[in-house]
Amino acid sequence: MPDAEAAARSPDLLRPRGSNQVGMRQFNERVVLQALRVHTSLPKADLARLTGLSAQTIGLITARLEEDQLIVKQSRVRGRVGQPSVPLALNPDGAFAIGIKVGRRGAEWLLIDFTAQVRERHAISYDFPDADELLPAIARHIHRLRDGLGPLAARNVGAGLAAPFLLGGWHRTLGLSKAQSDLWNQMNLLDEVKARTDVPVSFARDTVAACVAELVGGRGHDLKSFLYIFVDTFVGGGLVIDSHLHTGAHGNAGALASLPMQPAQAGRGAALPPQVMAEASLWELEQRLQGEGLDPTAAYDDRALQAPFAAATQAWLGSASLALAHAIVSSTAVLDLADVVMDGSMSRSLLQALLEQTRAALARCNWEGLWPPQLHGGRVGAQACALGGAMLPLHANFAPDHDVFLKAA
Asked: What residue spans carry the region label Disordered (predicted)?
């Protein structure tokens, strides 16, 4: 099993190619597993065609994978020319992984199976995380989810932790003391969690993890390259190029929260321009609701578009859509991408309203010299960060390892 700090590996979402060379057994096994993950189920003949491996090699590999209980045979398919075929598929009980999202407003734990289906979920909410309470809780729920598998507990391959790089960042906006901010910003969260559990743990920035989930289980099946936007307590994002996650020099590609909304002003002592985060984050919607004497947690559920919350929400939608349109135009000028995917931790109805207003705002932008991208809604939803975290150990252990798509921070 690879070290938890080693690079997690990219699913090849195009046509995975194998090799018949000696010494490539593990790589070819992972290519076959990835082909089954992408296509759900395939007979041996189609596996050979898609991977470029010989029929004999496919036969040997699938026999080993079936013996290891990583794949299962499905019912024979009849009615075609020639012999009936027997599709092969991933065994849901073949492996398990745990995903943890640590956010500024809550934490979430997911247990997923080998097909990336959620088996169990647990979530807690808070105004801001208390390290003395949250760190033991993270380890406690990791152990509870693993041990709850009973005889299959040994098939848990690890946990993936998704959190902001600087959980205490923007402390003045959040109303935190400098001491609270420094505690989290100076903490190595990965090391703190690893010290409390014997389960291998890997790390990804929260919105990057969400982008992984969308790449593997959402729009990534249809779109080759896209800018990913995730609207959470603070807005963020990720970047997919040619079906591979691009993280940048510091693992921060797609960090739209920090994008300035306007040029800096000349002169010593001039105020710094506001960032996209100040307009397009659910934190801002929380503040609007709270200013009206309403429950700010409504920003994350179906109440947001209902009375008496709707008026504040509509005002937020107006400013957030303009900020997001600005971010999309700016990104398009640099990246020239044809597609943008937007998701978030809000209700699906609020996401749809935000998509519609952002499309309208984009139509009013100056696109001279540029090609406007198409804006799509994400398919994964509010669990994207935790789900992407859980996918990290699965892909580190079972995906073809020739392309690194994420490195531990």
From this structure: 1-20
What is the residue-wise DSSP string for 254-307? Answer: T-GGG-BSSPPPSSTTPPPPPBTHHHHSHHHHHHHHHHTT--GGGGGSGGGGST
Report the candidate in 188, 276, 201, 204 with the shortest Cα–Cα distance to residue 245: 204
DSSP H or E segment with residue 35 = helix 25-39
pTM, two decimal places: 0.86
Report yes or no: 300 and 104 within 8 Å, Cβ to Cβ. no
Reduced to 3 states (helix: H, G, I; strand: E, B; else coil), residue 381 is coil
Closest CA relative to residue 394, chosen from 157, 40, 109, 217 = 157
Asked if the bond preceding 16 is cis, omega within 30° of 0, the reply is no
343 pLDDT above the threshold of 70: yes
Domains defined along the chain, listed by start: 21-76+86-90 (1.10.10.10), 96-206+386-405 (3.30.420.40), 219-262+273-379 (3.30.420.40)
Neighbouring CB atoms inside 10 A of 144's CB total 14
Distance of CA 199 to the CA centre of its chain: 21
What is the tens place of the pLDDT at every residue in 305-315? 999 999 999 99
Q: What value does the mean pLDDT take over residues 132-154?
A: 96
> Which pair of structure tokens corresponds to residue 118?
């959620």
The SS3 assignment for 191 reads helix
Q: Which helix (H) or strand (E) holds 376?
A: strand 374-377
From the list 354, 324, 345, 363, the residue with the least C-alpha distance to 227 is 324
Percent of the chain with pLDDT over 90: 68
Q: What length does the chain have?
A: 409
How far apart are alpha carbons 197 and 160 in whole angstroms?
13
> CA–CA separation, 103 vs 247, rounded Å?
20
Q: Measured in whole angstroms, how far is the alpha carbon of residue 49 from the centre of its chain?
A: 31
Residue 152, token pair as written in the block: 């299959």
The dihedral through the CA atoms of 283, 303, 375, 207 has a sign that is positive
Radius of gyration for the alpha carbons in the chain, expressed in angstroms and rounded: 23
The DSSP call for residue 232 is: S
